[in-house]
Amino acid sequence: MRLTINGRQVEADVDVRTSLLDLLRDHLGLPGTKKGCNQGACGACTVLADGERINSCLALAVQYDGREVTTIEGVGAPGALHPLQRAFVEHDGFQCGYCTPGQICSAIGMAAELERGLPSYVTGDLDAETIELTHDELRERMSGNLCRCGAYNGIVDAIRETFGQIAEDAGKREAA
Amino acid sequence: MTPFLYERAADRQGALALGARAGASYLGGGTNLVDLMRETIAHPELLVDVTGLSREIEDTPEGGLRIGAGVKNTAVAGDRRVRQRYPLLAQAILAGASAQIRNMATTGGNILQRTRCAYFYDDAARCNKRAPGAGCDAVEGFNRIHAILGASPACVATHPSDMCVALAALEATVTLEGQDGGREIAFADLHRLPGETPEVETQLRPGELITAVTLPPNGLAARSTYRKVRDRASYAFALVSVAAGLELEGGVIGDVRLALGGVAHKPWRAHAAEAALKGRPATESVFREAAEAELAPARPLRDNGFKIELARRVIVDTLVKLARTEETV
Predict the structure, then answer these.
(1) Total-model pTM
(2) Which of A109, A55, A62 is nearest to B35 (CA)?
């Protein structure tokens, strides 16, 4: 099995039962992605597969053969943080930090969805070309990531500061 | 997880040949099946990955839409044609699961997801669905989330899908392919009520594969909505949900579609309520009569009696709001 992980080609020969999460953590030395519930309920294991956020705990690694996966290790590094990582630090977007890699990967995936104009359950006009990242939109779109410390206020602030402009910018591009 | 073989199907014929083998299961996004395998509730010997097949959404010559079974939930809800012509379906999909899961889950897999009854998931409990003939611990157990309509002494589980409730209301059809050929059946006929055999959940024959769902031309887009009531604001299964579409002609109800989620072993098309609505004035008292008609046969268990009143109120309130909606399409 061959995957591109954080821009690097990797080969793996693992038991077919191995989840993408276990492949990353136990076989490829990438423990940044966290195992919370291991049943798709908490979002701690969120990674990006070809740019789309998924729960790596529910993914059989073998199904991702040939795909491109980005984990928190590929988002930023000490000294070269992603703007969202910096915003999480500034806004106290975590307490214990266990859900944070999943929150950050999820928010990056969410920003891409918003940029393509994908609606959510709380979007009033399903056919709208652009959707503003309101408080309600953000909370609905991030509902797949739980934080048991309850750092939601900081998480919401960090994401809004980083990605709040996206919808507006997309609107301007349409107009131009 | 019990060991298994994994094969990625290259085409439909290959998938059907593999799917016909003993112990084979088709695999979509895996969001439900992989979890059930990990919990040792499901133990297929062969997984046939069909996520590479049937990935298109196409217009039909009749003016409807044909959604391939391999299309991801996110892609269906994001499709412009679905959003404009079948907003009920887009809304229902977006009400389900989380964005991560919708990015993984396929249309076919969503339809075939298993119940979230805790006794089905707990292999220390008795469950007729998991072990036919074993008995059911939910009937006398904690059954707050269980069925109020169409249940049997053998099984009181509910079907968890939101998408399927909209498909029932929209009168979709399902295309099935087997080694002996294909067939088309009404979506409403695909899932079964539990009766004495709750382990048989659909009309699918062994080895048969869902390849597409077809939506008829009329999506009731002008007045339709999916309303979901759950224990938290997002990312939870429905206690009760309502998919509703309404056509009004001078204040009188023309075509009307109503389906309920969270209340039965299958997406529940509310035929009795629809019959009580057609041709009548769109007033709150008529809506209440319709809800009463649908829920008359409802039977509560120890903990879920609240669902009957909840369903009644949600049906009435949803129809009241729909009747007031300005036509936008």
Answers:
(1) 0.97
(2) A55
Question: What is the CATH number assigned to the segment(s) A83-175?
Answer: 1.10.150.120
Q: Which residue has the higher pLDDT, B45 or A176?
A: B45
Q: Give me the total of CB pairs closer than 8 Å, taking one residue from chain A and one from chain B.
A: 103
Q: Which CATH class, in words, describes the domain spanning A2-75?
A: alpha beta
- Model pLDDT for residues B101-150, shown as the tens digit of each residue: 999 999 999 999 999 999 999 999 999 999 999 999 999 999 999 999 99
d(CA B290, CA B308): 13
A104 contacts A88 by C-beta, under 8 angstroms: yes
pLDDT tens digit sequence for A89-112: 999 999 999 999 999 999 999 999
In the predicted model, residues of chain B with pLDDT beneath 50 are 328-329
Location of each CATH 3.10.20.30 domain in chain A: 2-75
CA-nearest residue to A129 within chain B is B80
Nearest Cα of chain B lies from the Cα of A87 at a distance, in angstroms, of: 22
**Partner-chain residue, chosen from A38, A58, A126, that has the shortest CB–CB distance to B83:** A126
Residues of chain A with CATH 1.10.150.120: 83-175
Whether the CB of A58 is below 8 Å from some CB of chain B: the reply is yes
Distance, in Å, from the CA atom of A28 to the CA atom of B303, rounded to the nearest integer, reads 47
Q: Hey, are the CB atoms on A144 and B98 less than 8 Å from each other?
A: yes
How do residues A48-72 score in pLDDT, each as one tens digit?
999 999 999 999 999 999 999 999 9
Contacting residues for B112 by C-beta, under 8 A, at least 6 apart: B28, B201, B202, B204, B210
Nearest chain B residue (CA) to A114: B78
pLDDT of residue B5: 98
